[in-house]
Amino acid sequence: SYELTQPPSVSVSPGQTARITCSGDALPKQYAYWYQQRPGQAPVLLIYKDSERPSGIPERFSGSTSGTTVTLAISGVQAEDEADYYCQSADSSGPRVFGGGTKLTVL
Amino acid sequence: EVQLVESGGGLVQPGGSLRLSCAASGFTFSTYEMNWVRQAPGKGLEWVSYISSSGSIIYYADSVKGRFTISRDNAKNSLYLQMNSLRVEDTAFYYCARENGFDIWGQGTMVTVSS
Q1: pLDDT tens per residue, range B50-78
Q2: How far apart are CA B86 and CA B109, in angstroms?
Q3: pLDDT at B4
Q4: DSSP string across A30-77
Q5: With the CA atoms of A21, A85, B8 and B61 taken in that order, what torsion angle do they form, in degrees rounded to the nearest 10?
Q6: What residues in B contact A35, CB-CB < 8 Å?
Q7: What is the β-pairing status of strands A96-98 and A83-90?
Q8: What confidence tens digit (pLDDT) does each residue in A59-81 have?
């Protein structure tokens, strides 16, 4: 079955830029989405269609794509950004898939 | 207010069945594709199933194929997940999510499969 691969953890100091990658063979042909999940809460959509930001999501969250890898960048990281981040896409045949998740630690 | 509210979770023995419901409000439910997503305690998100707006197209994760059935009633603004032959590894929080980039999520309902 189709898989998306994320690093288990990323650490960054406050004010720096955090980058979280997500790799998958179908990503050049399928859109990627990014979600933030804080403990005990439902996920929140951060980025849709690779790089679009829903209303209400701060501009410091951005998405980009290059070949089979998509990247979520968080500029000016704040303590409140400490959370789990998931990428999501779809198999070319239809089923959806999530990456394994990345725990962002703000040092 | 755009909202999804899940219900129907609980404790069930291995091999048992459970039916989850997801009530939608604040948007035109019949025009949106929907999904079920689950999260085992301390684990990541796992996509479970997708249904098109009309119900004519359905997908399942391999882990639930043949055991779970997704359905919807657009007249009742409701999404369902019939879960049969439940296993211990099906224990998780189950979320329904609107597919517009999974932009709206419910609060989740807990399913515990244990003897």
Answers
A1: 999 999 999 999 999 999 999 999 999 99
A2: 16
A3: 98
A4: S--EEEEE-TTS--EEEEBTTTB--TTS-TTEEEEEETTEEEEEESS-
A5: 10
A6: 45, 102
A7: antiparallel
A8: 999 999 999 999 999 999 999 99
Residue B16 CB neighbour total at 10 angstroms? 13
How many residues comprise chain B?
115
Query: First and final CA of chain B: distance in angstroms?
Result: 39
- Answer whether A94 sits within 8 Å of B47, measured CB to CB: no
- What is the C-alpha to C-alpha distance for residues B34 and A60, in angstroms, rounded to an integer? 29
* Helices within B1-115 (DSSP H only): none
Are the C-beta atoms of residues B106 and B5 closer than 8 Å to each other?
yes
Within 10 Å of residue B105's Cβ, how many Cβ atoms?
21
Picking from B89, B82, B68, B65, the residue whose alpha carbon sits closest to that of residue B22 is B82
**CA B83/CA B66 separation, integer angstroms:** 10
Q: Strand B104-105 to strand B109-113: parallel, antiparallel, or no bridges (unpaired)?
A: unpaired
Nearest CA distance, A58 vs chain B (angstrom): 16
